[in-house]
Amino acid sequence: MFILHVTYNVHKMIPISDINPAKNTPVISRIFIITVALVYLLLQPKNSYDLFNFFYEFAAIPCELFLKTPISGTQFYANDCNLLGNDLVFPEKNLYISILFSNFFHANFLHILGNLWSFWIFGNNVEDKLGKFNFSMFLLIIGILSIGVHTILNFNSLVPVVGASGVVSGIMGAYVYLFPNAKLLVLVPFGILFPTTIKARTFMYFWFISQLFIALGSSNISWEAHIGGFLFGYLTIKLSKYTRYNL
Questions:
Q1: pLDDT tens across 21-80, in order?
Q2: Domain 3-239 CATH (choose: 1.20.1540.10, 1.20.1050.40, 3.40.50.880, 3.40.50.10680)
Q3: pTM of the predicted protein model
Q4: Are 202 and 13 in contact (CB under 8 A)?
Q5: CA 136 to CA 146: how far, in whole Å?
Q6: DSSP assignment, residue 219?
Q7: What is the C-alpha to C-alpha distance for residues 176 and 104, in angstroms, rounded to an integer?
């Protein structure tokens, strides 16, 4: 089992698009999406056993980051971060690079589809207002901070953290600050899925409610990274005093 970052729906409410066209070509957004897709298609193993080992070798693991050393076989088989041993599983693992790598890994097709779809809906507009360089730095910082929040709150966990939704959540936070009244086209389930439009800030209210359901339930979804990424994204743009657009 892996801790996933998933932003595909908002407790059954599925975003389809926003009615807020960007003025400039979202180059960085396209590069990020293509890179994540290529990592999934070309680098990640397709066999579940190999993928399991791949994530443990290259993805961020809270216990490792907390202790600043790769986990040992003793820790892994006992599922106990505090049970130190000298039999390191991947002794050459770069723990700091693993934080970056985790944002590009995904467990399955629906996992990557949900994250990249959400990234595209919200990312192009945020990139449009921040500019390419600032948006690139924004993605890097939010990716690190969101996994940092998950690590702090789960420092004993031996489970790898994978997925781009800490980044996507940060983009959502930036988006709702910049465009609180932008209209989003979403699918809402009432027996069947039907399309409707709602304001961005209303969508984010439902999103926060979904994170509470995740936190209260037993789930392998990292609500900590989601909320941490969202708050960091919102506050970063707010404190940077970017103009808000009342569409």
A1: 889 999 999 999 999 999 999 999 999 999 999 999 999 999 999 999 999 999 999 999
A2: 1.20.1540.10
A3: 0.90
A4: no
A5: 16
A6: -
A7: 24
